[in-house]
Amino acid sequence: MTENSFFGRHPDTTDLAEVDDVQFLDTTLRDGEQAPGVSLTPDEKARIARKLDEAEIDFIEAGSACTGPGERDTIKRVTDLDLDATITSFSRGIQNDIDLALDCDVDGVTIVVPGSDKHIEEKVGTTHEDNVQNTQELVEYAKDHDLWVEVIGEDGSRADPDYLTELMAASMDAGADRICYADTVGHATPDDTLERIKPMTELGPTSTHTHDDLGMAVTNALVSVAAGADLVHGTINGIGERAGNVALEEVAIALDHGYDVQPMDLTEVYPLAELISNTTGVPLAPNKAVIGENAFTHESGIHTDGTLKDDTMYEPYPPEKVGRERRLALGKHAGRAGVEAALDEHGFDADDDEIHEIVQRVKAIGDRGKRVTDADLLTIAEEVIGQDRDRRVELVEMTAASGSGTPTASVRIEIDGEERVASGTGSGPVDAAVQAVQEALGHAADASLDSYHVDAITGGTDAVVTVEVVMSRGDNSVTVAISDADITRASVEAMVDAIDRLIANEPDQVLADD
């Protein structure tokens, strides 16, 4: 690998396969929270921090203590968890920020000081000499208070390389534990990155902080590591200001798959991605590397057939490596092998002619621009094979009300011939109805709602919406889409139909919960 490695052919880089160790500093709770519309509560930050720690992330930047009392409460909530990771606070180049961080009981601080002329002269309004002196004094103060210290040269990608090196050298001389190159505005090319970070790596432990405005965040992070950096700043899912920070999961899989370097527990990647997406409200792009819905989903007949014969045929690495599962989707590109595999998964035994007819109907739905859900496939199969479907779970009646008080809902559901009535409350009528359904079904159903999505398919005040749910029970999952003018009814019918599909082949009375 060394002989043919891109990283290592340049005299200022090392073959990544020869790198001993790379650590991560996750700044999802700080830089990630600076993405528009993202705000995390203390409990949410604690939940994410705990999951980051389980993923063996070495450093967690919990926030900026200088932001205000509420932010300090959230940082303190994280430090109280007693995690294995080093917990830090982001600090500006003033002593009070370090004092506020100390009040939060953090292990360390990342001190950001101006690196470029633009920031030194226009933003802060100081001189190059005073900036160096102030930085040294801050480092000495933080070290005197037993803090781990990293100094970040803000806007380093637009800084004069010689001055940036001088500033970072002064930081190390003052006792900093490490220094950090920052492409604050996502300006850098790999050449810019190498030019500035290589001299820094010769001064001491060096980190890299890259943004994705040019789509080069991962490449610049890898160039940094090849140049000698041993810690990468980033966020899960790449959330952050503007185009976002470098996505740590992408750096991790690149290092692991390409160079056999393991900076984190990759099996925790997808659970982390889902947690952060759900908590921040920033959805995962379906085509996103590693964590996108389509990353391990195959629809094309050729790809599906090849994947069924050999898991590695059309995938660079197994989905289990990053906590995922492979999915075979059905649509206009579906082939016989994929349809047959999906039917087999749901317990259908069809002959050649029946499978051919089912494939044609699936393709016809796909040609109309529709996604073929599991429920669509099963309905088609039942019609083609002539197999009657005996429903075990059916919605009989539902009412929901919101008004000015607490939203409430009640449902009457028939389960294995027995009617059950239940009610629920929630943050809205849909949530209340879902709670009522779950209460009626009982804990023995053991089905979880994995995904809930709503699309308006007509306009106006009487718009029809489509609710799509993904529910799972054990190792089985099913997708159901229901359209209705009433979003609450569509939601409940989709859930009930999904559960009915999931328990179709289960023993009688699986839902008994007296």
- Show unreliable segments: 300-308
What value does the average pLDDT take? 86
> Could you give the count of β-strands?
16
Cα Rg: 27 Å
What share of residues is helical?
Answer: 25-40%
Structural class: alpha/beta
Largest sheet: 8 strands, parallel, barrel
Oligomer status? single chain
Strand proportion? 15-25%
Query: What is the tally of helical segments?
Result: 16
Distance between the termini: 63 Å
Shape: elongated
Q: What order do the strands of the largest sheet run in, or round the barrel if closed?
A: 1-2-3-4-5-6-7-8
GO biological process, one term: L-leucine biosynthetic process
Family: Belongs to the alpha-IPM synthase/homocitrate synthase family.
Organism: Halorientalis brevis
Pfam family, one: HMGL-like
Walk me through the structure:
With 514 residues, the protein is α/β, with parallel strands linked by helices. It has 16 helices and 16 strands. Strand 11 and strand 12 form a beta hairpin. Helix 1 (42-54) packs parallel to helix 2 (69-79), helix 7 (190-201) runs parallel beside helix 8 and helix 15 (429-441) runs parallel beside helix 16. The longest helix has 17 residues, at 128-144. It starts with 22 loop residues before the first strand and ends in a 12-residue tail after the last helix.
